[in-house]
Design a protein that fits this description.
Lipase; 54 residues
């Protein structure tokens, strides 16, 4: 199992506030879930800044 298939730069984590907080025990399980990570990443995409087609 890949624990973090799509790590984001720290500046992006702070900028978008996408909830990747490894110290928040309530979210650790969801953050380890690739599908959940994908959903988080999709939610933070903004026009002209598609992270999948960089």
């Amino acid at each position: 199992m890949t624990l973090n298939p799509a790590p984001l730069p720290e500046k992006d984590v702070k900028k978008y506030g996408n909830g990747f907080d490894m110290e928040n025990i309530r979210n650790v399980i969801n953050e380890k879930d690739p599908l959940h990570l994908g959903a988080k990443a999709a939610d933070m995409v903004i026009p002209g800044k598609n992270i999948y087609n960089a």
